[in-house]
Amino acid sequence: MTGRWELLRALGAVAGDPADARTAAAALGLPGCGNAEHADVFVLNCPPYASVYLGAEGGLGGEGADRVAGFWRAIGIDPGPGEPDHLTSLLSLYAHLGEAAAESRTARTAAALGQMRQALFDEHLWPWLPGYLSAVTDLGVGALVAWAELTLRVVKRERGGTGPDGLPLALREAPAPVDADGGLDELLGGLVAPVRSGLILTRRAVAAGAGQAGAGHRIGERRFALRAMLESEPDRTAGWLGQEAARWSQRHLGIAAGDPVQQWWAGRAAATARVLRGQSGAT
Questions:
Q1: What is 46-87 written as a DSSP string?
Q2: How is residue 163 annotated by DSSP?
Q3: Which of 145, 164, 172 lies closest to 31, judged by CA?
Q4: Domains by residue range for the chain, with CATH
Q5: C-alpha span between 259 and 6 (Å, rounded)
Q6: Helix, strand, coil shares of the chain as percentages rounded to 5?
Q7: 117-172: per-residue pLDDT in tens?
């Protein structure tokens, strides 16, 4: 598969319906992925929705999803009742705009479509996708590690250079960073919201962290598991979380040198690491 737009559409399809994902993977020359592995990655650990990573609560829907739906409406497309912030939908729209510009009969229309496509990328793909793909890679599901690595290479190529000097709206208006002064509930709320913490704590990462901290893993929602860990082994859990935040800070910087979006994410993760060092009593 060599066409730019076909490539991007197929990469997005891998994150969608499992049957479509296998068809797309075959077209891309990637290993197939079983239903259980697909669900483990895209349902249980890394839901492919922009709102999860750019929304204040770190969950589906809300202002993050509304912002993406607003973009669809602004370019004259009704997002309908589906999932406008799902990666499959976003990459399909991106490819559609690219194809439409290439086929346009006038330079003016082509330029307008190109501006729409660039805005989609700058505002609703690049702000969360590199970190998301890194989290997928951490899961170690072989077939999807290959997909995540390929997708990141393609997305970085689409970005080109360092991109715009400014930040996208979702980061300019991001909620407050992680804060331990408001108590445990406030701390937990920040940790599970990537746009507040700068890191992506998947269910699998939390389970691994419980083992490292010797806190014992509680099956269930991440906030519940983290609460149990911080209550039973507060210093060791905060120490592990601080290490994770520092690792994510360096990871963001390594994605695209000099890129303002990745620098923003790195700074937010570094701030979380400082908060957690204070929680663990480290100097």
A1: ---BHHHHHSTTSSSSHHHHHHHHHHHHHTT---TTS-TTBH
A2: -
A3: 145
A4: 4-159 (1.10.3480.10), 175-280 (no CATH)
A5: 27
A6: 70, 0, 30
A7: 999 999 999 999 999 999 999 999 989 999 999 999 999 999 986 566 789 999 99
Closest to 255 in 3D by CA, of 163, 140, 121, 123: 163
Q: What are phi and psi of 86, to 5 degrees?
A: -75, 145
Q: Torsion-angle region of residue 238: left (phi > 0), alpha (psi -120 to 50) or beta?
A: alpha
Kindly state the greatest CA–CA separation across the chain. Answer: 66
CA atoms of 166 and 143, how far apart (whole Å): 35
The amino acid at 7: L
Contacts of 179 (CB under 8 A, 6+ apart): 186, 187, 190, 275
DSSP state of 42: I
Task: For residue 55, give every residue at least 6 positions away whose Cβ sits within 8 Å of its Cβ, in sequence order, or none.
Answer: 61, 62, 63, 64, 65, 193, 195
Report pLDDT digits (tens) over 50-76: 999 999 999 999 999 999 999 999 999
